[in-house]
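Recap from last week: sequence in, structure out.
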Amino acid sequence: MTAIVLAGTFSMLLSLFATPLLIRYLNSHSFGQFIRHDGPATHMVKRGTPTMGGIVIIVAAVLGWLGGNLFLGRLPNASSLLVVLLMVGLGAVGFIDDAIKITRERSLGLSPLWKIVGQGAVGITFAILALQFPDENGITPASEAVSFLRDSALDLAIWGPGVGLVLFVIWANFLITAWSNATNLTDGLDGLATGASIIFFGAYTIIAIWQYYQWCGFDDAVANCYEVRDPRDIAILAVAIAGACVGFLWWNAAPAKIFMGDTGSLALGGAIAGVTIMTRTELLGAIIGGLFVIIVASSVLQIGFFKISGGKRIFKMAPLHHHFELLGWPEVNIVIRFWIIAGVAAGLGIGIFYAEWVAALPAGA
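Predicted structure tokens:
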């Protein structure tokens, strides 16, 4: 537990004190955000706010994660290392996207095709490697079985190892793309995505700690233990990411002094996908990250209804938070109320996770 506390504290302090240094550097080089003209008119005042703040989140999280493992006197294990590679890789794609926006002075960066290519290259590499590196018990970081609270009976390898690998790569990349785009869409108001990410990774810190103490790798493991590879490492990484987001939120809260940009949103989305895959709770992640799912669903419904109805809209603007902006809600009110929704979703997910473990206890235990 000490390593987990240290990782979260160190990443939080590093992010808190490094972010103003990045703000000063970005301001001195006029690296500011360009605002889409079809967005809410109130956002035009945010033009020129420094972006690419995700750099601090990534660096602080990685250093906090390394510090937690060094406190334990060992190098990180495969599971958390792969999630870090996924987070950094997608962060690099986001950085290129942000850099194009800044240098070409426009609100659009990479073309959709090249963004998909970049996300795909990182995601495929992650997925293939995640099925390698078995531990002494033969457990690999990821599993070819689709998971909810643990691996389910739906095993993609049932059609053979080669087909199972291909299907897992497709499934993992669906999750990676979905979560990174969901985080990107949620990052539309000051502090919204940052606060929601804190809640998500805080919840997964609890889940990974619980998995560690009920781990099948222990000699005295209980009957309903968790067959995951490196739960303690995932807990250290999750709390390090949460801590980095806490420090960043100090400067990202309304009125934001800096935006995380695609550098941060794609990195956090990749980390969300990676953590759910490594803890074997892929579908549970959709409950714990319920706010992200709601925001994506609002955009999907808006686009679908617009095409089907011949130009009519369900919301005044999508994603959902912009709808409430156009209704006249103050930005801070929207953010706080959406954080409440995120907290309720995370609490529900943790409750379901714990209830399943209690229900699986042998009679009389």
